[in-house]
Amino acid sequence: MLDNLDKFKCLKRGPSGAINIDPLQRGGVLTPEAREAILEWADGYSVCDFCTGSLESIDSPPIREFVQDVLPEFLETDQVRITHGAREGIFAAMHALCERGETVVADGNAHYTTLLAAELAGLKVEPVPAGQEPHYRVDPQGYEEAIERARGKGEVVGMAVLTYPDGNYGNLVDPRTVSEICRREGVPLIINGAYSVGRMAVGAKSLGADVIIGSGHKSMASSGPIGVIGTSDELAAMIFRRSQLVPHKELEMLGCTLRGAGILTMMASFPAVVERTKLWDEEVEKARWFAGEMGKLGMDLQGDRPHGHDLMFFKSEILYEISKTAKKGRYFLYRELKKRKIFGIKPGLTRQFKLSSYLLPRDDLKMVLSAFEEIVSHHPKA
How high is the pLDDT of residue 318? Predict the structure, then answer.
């Protein structure tokens, strides 16, 4: 096995000029500045060469200023830490702010990692149910009902989580209404902004969140995995508390936050990220146009209508019917798109799939639409 390792010398993602419509990746495409930074800082624990005990204390490169001044202003919080991803930030907040056996109230469209974080922290989960298709809406008033249900069972509600937007349908639940309910009930609110922080102009204060979570590799043009967590000074005293055994290290961060090139790509991309949040309305309008054109081809948009995000979930009976007789069966769609240098829809999906239009020029989106039109028209239905 060790005699034939040449395959590892040149690992390529795909052909040049390809169109990537993967929702996980559209917001994480690196800026030219970030690509330069990653080459400069790619060697091992390069950032740690300058560390005296904590990432946010490094002055050169200017990580201290970025973490202590720039990101708190951007996230509308008092304090921020860099994490290894959104899920690590969610777990840190749950583990620090809740007691084992307590209950977390979470939207029915929450990412699976919210459930894993709660389970690992020893917490129960009371869901706020999502509605039926095609909208799958979560009623913000459902948070009050979920809190009451949990308390009616004798449970202590330690926290609420709102996924904004959710990673399935791109639905945006009114965060202010949820926040008002949580404050009235004395429950801290985490907003999982993995698909909003870095895309939209959002912050903890404007959304009404006690803790806000972001994902650098999903939405902040960063090389991941990397995330951010921001909160108030009051809650930071618990979430970022110091270890008793190693007093200069923060316990929930396991001593050190993200090491290496990821933080440098986030910093290098950040000026462009700030500017692009100002263009969010244009991205939404473009997504609505694209969804409308897909609808004409038999691809039915699920989730909020009018849609408010670039992440789109489609159901397509026409592609499913084609897959019944097409060569390669349900893998035919992936292969047909690949031939046209379009990537991002997972292999094997035809009846339902997700994609994103974020930051793609309309000409590229027209090419995607043309590809779907050709695929539908050139394949016989079962």
Answer: 94
pTM attached to this predicted model: 0.93
263 with 302, same domain: the answer is no
Predicted confidence at residue 378, as pLDDT, reads 83
Q: What is the pLDDT of residue 83?
A: 95
Report the DSSP beta bridge partners of residue 228.
Answer: 82, 214
Q: How far apart are the C-alpha atoms of 195 and 16, rounded to whole Å? A: 26
Domain that holds residue 53: 32-276
- The answer to whether residue 239 sits within a structural domain is yes
Q: Which of 272, 194, 228 is nearest to 82 (CA)?
A: 228
Average of per-residue pLDDT across 37-50: 74
Check whether residue 224 and residue 111 sit in a common domain. Answer: yes
- What pLDDT digit, counting tens, does each position of 164-194 carry? 999 999 999 999 999 999 999 999 999 999 9
**What is the token pair recorded at 297?**
């081809």
